[in-house]
């Protein structure tokens, strides 16, 4: 080894990281996943570009005795990446849509696999010899078939997040199908590798048998042990170095076991990630990903891209190989598209949505490179064919975003989200309130106890229970395509938790739940309110900044710590004649009507006019008193007070259980008309002219 090998190793690492960052930044400029630019940068540092410069700069920069060291770093990065893929795999994603997802997944594997195997008949005579050894046709055909069948779950998840498609039918079904696709495709690849590396039928049987035994041990023994990691993390309150060390030790041991079995180390890494606990482990996953990103994405995966680039020689394809490259692209794109589209249509999914699913399932990205490198290591692919397949992986990934915008534009995404939310909410026959929980930390029982007052405002109304999950702030997204946040399994857990909270509420006429990832709470709550059409939005008092910026519907801030007897006392409303004041009267009236409690209004407004406006409240059995001094009317009791925001909405919030902030257009309507619409039976209210228009307009452009 050259005495300057340390110098070249350090130099190479610096050059590779710089090239990867530049390539990723350029890709993002063109609305492509960063991984596309990083792969292209790796190829550029190989013979395809750097090797074309006279003087042998590529061999000087990457000496032959340093390349194995880069290869070792690349393999460690690959193991970490496959662990992350397994970690992100959560079969809760397919819950409730098993048949359609299985149909899409299996057909999107079977069709390209068959076409890939058929393509092998054409390509085999030209690529049957690798390093002087003749490849068996069966091994060649099987590998080409599986290479055409893969879908990159990480890149697909990134695209869905960027387009806001997580809750659209194409997003839901493609994500669930890709989860099944991961399991089936990696299992098939393990079998194909066993066939290729085993040689004799007896050796193949040994490899397959040992693989099945190891998978069973992981599922039956290791998986229950890994579940204890949640308790360990929660008791410490954070991801400790010891906890991360245990995870990494298990990961590398698992990868080593599958490597010695003969099915490649990537399967041990993937299997260990898949066995990690899923339910209640969102914080654990987030902390694992945040720590591994720094090492895996910034340092080790770029080594993998460059090592891949060393074996890619685009000039070596030549003019004579262009027709072969064309065939590879046609089979890859058409096979996956036709298979996924057919599976979706068989499941009665509409044509446009089926086309969007088919485009999404065509994403290959880094996952395809993992498979291709395995084929190169096993001696199944020639350098020329390997180069063609790498080009195919890049082209199919690059095409996904523009094709998806063509078949499923933003306007259709918005329509589908709005339609889905309206179907979930139903028509409704009473007034509707939207209750926004500030966070979902804790069990459903703990949430109910912590937000007792906030959750109690829904009595007598249709309740829409809302949670906004955080998305990753800039710079915290894994650039190989896997989102640290949003976590789709976390979404499923959040919906389950909201349903549990909703089932414990007392008094609402109905409960619906809505949940979405949000980087802009004001914009997302506005869009959700357009679809839900609530009479009031209730927020925790800590969300005052959000409340002051919402104009889609009146907002009431609920202070859980403000002193008040919420039960068996009057509801007091102390307001002036302002838009927020008039709305505060209606909020107070709705609380009084729900429990048939006395309503006391302290205001300078005309008592006679206000009494007439609130006749519908009296008709519901509520005693309404309009007074000049609330203390004289209540004596020593501590009432539940509803007030309105003034010029500074923060004033009074620490002392008031509920403070109303109304920046909506509904406050311009007559108070009596609004009260009639809220408190008269709907059949009566609908006959009045004022009830002809709803509180807020529902728009199909909901997202």
Number of helices: 30
Approximate strand percentage: 5-15%
CATH class of the largest domain: Mainly Alpha
The structural class is alpha/beta
Number of domains as seen in the coordinates: 3
Instruction: Kindly state the number of beta strands.
Output: 12
What is the straight-line distance between the termini? 59 Å
Helix content: 55-70%
Question: Which term fits the overall shape?
Answer: elongated
Largest sheet: 10 strands, mixed
Classify the oligomer: single chain
Transmembrane segments: 6-27, 39-57, 69-89, 101-125, 137-160, 172-198, 204-222, 243-275, 295-315, 322-344, 370-395
Region (Disordered): 671-703
InterPro entries: Cation/H_exchanger_TM, CPA2_transporter, Na+/solute_symporter_sf
Subcellular location: Membrane
What would you say this structure looks like, in words?
Residues 18-403 form the Cation/H+ exchanger transmembrane domain. This is Sodium/hydrogen exchanger. The protein has 703 residues and is of the alpha/beta class. The chain has three domains: 4-421, Up-down Bundle (Na+/H+ antiporter like fold); 429-471 and 489-561, Rossmann fold, CATH 3.40.50; 566-630 and 639-646 and 655-679, no CATH class. The protein is built from 30 helices and twelve strands. β8, α25 and β9 form a beta-alpha-beta unit. α4 (67-88) runs antiparallel to α13 (282-310), α15 crosses α16 (351-361) and α20 (444-450) crosses α22.
């Amino acid at each position: 080894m050259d005495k300057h090998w340390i110098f070249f190793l350090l130099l190479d690492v610096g050059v590779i990281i710089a090239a990867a960052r530049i390539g990723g930044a350029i890709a993002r400029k063109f609305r492509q996943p960063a991984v596309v630019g990083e792969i292209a940068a790796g190829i550029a540092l190989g013979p395809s570009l750097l090797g074309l410069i006279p003087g042998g700069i590529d061999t000087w920069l990457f000496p032959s005795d340093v390349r194995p060291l880069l290869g070792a770093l690349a393999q460690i990065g690959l193991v970490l990446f496959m662990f992350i893929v397994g970690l992100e795999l959560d079969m809760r994603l397919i819950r409730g849509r098993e048949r359609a997802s299985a149909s899409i997944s299996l057909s999107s594997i079977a069709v390209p696999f068959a076409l890939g195997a058929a393509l092998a008949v054409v390509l085999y005579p030209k690529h049957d010899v690798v390093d002087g050894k003749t490849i068996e046709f069966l091994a060649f055909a099987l590998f080409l078939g599986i290479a055409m069948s893969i879908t990159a779950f990480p890149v697909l998840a990134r695209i869905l997040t960027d387009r806001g498609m997580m809750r659209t039918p194409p997003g839901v079904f493609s994500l669930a199908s890709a989860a099944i696709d991961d399991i089936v495709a990696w299992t098939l690849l393990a079998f194909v590798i066993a066939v290729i590396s085993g040689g004799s039928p007896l050796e193949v049987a040994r490899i397959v048998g040992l693989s099945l035994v190891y998978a069973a041990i992981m599922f039956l023994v290791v998986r229950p042990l890994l579940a204890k990691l949640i308790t360990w993390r929660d008791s410490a309150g954070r991801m400790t170095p010891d906890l991360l060390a245990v995870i990494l030790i298990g990961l590398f041991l698992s990868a080593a076991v599958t490597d010695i079995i003969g099915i490649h180390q990537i399967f041990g890494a993937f299997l260990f990630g898949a066995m990690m606990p899923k339910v209640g482990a969102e914080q654990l996953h987030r902390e694992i990903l945040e720590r591994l990103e720094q090492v895996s994405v910034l340092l080790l995966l770029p080594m993998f891209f460059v090592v891949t680039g060393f074996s890619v020689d685009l000039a070596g394809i030549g003019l004579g190989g262009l027709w072969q490259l064309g065939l590879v692209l046609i089979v890859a794109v058409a096979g996956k598209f036709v298979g996924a589209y057919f599976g979706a249509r068989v499941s009665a999914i509409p044509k446009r949505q089926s086309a969007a699913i088919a485009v999404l399932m065509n994403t290959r990205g880094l996952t395809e490179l993992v498979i291709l490198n395995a084929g190169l290591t096993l001696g199944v692919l020639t350098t020329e064919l390997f180069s063609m397949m790498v080009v195919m992986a890049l082209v199919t990934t690059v095409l996904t975003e523009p094709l998806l915008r063509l078949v499923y534009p933003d306007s259709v995404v918005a329509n589908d989200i709005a339609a889905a939310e309206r179907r979930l909410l139903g028509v409704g026959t009473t007034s509707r309130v939207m209750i926004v929980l500030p966070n979902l930390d804790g069990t459903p029982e703990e949430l109910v106890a912590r937000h007792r007052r906030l959750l109690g405002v829904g009595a007598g109304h249709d309740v829409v229970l809302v949670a906004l999950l955080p998305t990753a702030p800039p710079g915290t997204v894994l650039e190989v395509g896997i989102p640290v946040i949003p976590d789709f399994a976390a979404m499923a857990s959040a919906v389950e938790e909201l349903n549990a909270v909703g089932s414990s509420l007392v008094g609402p006429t109905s409960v619906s739940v809505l949940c979405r990832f949000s980087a802009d709470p004001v914009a997302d709550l506005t869009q959700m309110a357009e679809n839900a059409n609530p009479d009031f939005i209730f927020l925790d008092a800590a969300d005052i900044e959000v409340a002051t910026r919402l104009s889609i519907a009146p907002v009431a801030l609920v202070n859980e710590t403000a002193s008040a007897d919420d039960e068996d006392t009057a509801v007091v409303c102390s307001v002036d004649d302002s838009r927020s004041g008039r709305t505060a009267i209606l909020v107070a009236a709705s609380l009084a009507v729900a429990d048939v409690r006395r309503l006391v209004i302290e205001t300078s407004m005309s008592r006679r006019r206000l009494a007439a406006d609130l006749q519908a409240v009296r008709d519901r059995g509520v005693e309404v008193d309009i007074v000049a001094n609330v203390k004289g009317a209540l004596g020593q009791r501590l009432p539940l007070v509803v007030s309105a925001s003034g010029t500074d909405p923060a004033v009074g919030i620490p002392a008031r259980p509920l403070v109303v902030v109304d920046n909506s257009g509904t406050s311009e309507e007559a108070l009596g008309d609004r009260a009639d619409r809220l408190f008269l039976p709907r059949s009566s209210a609908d006959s009045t002219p004022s009830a002809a228009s709803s509180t807020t307009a529902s728009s199909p452009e909901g997202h």
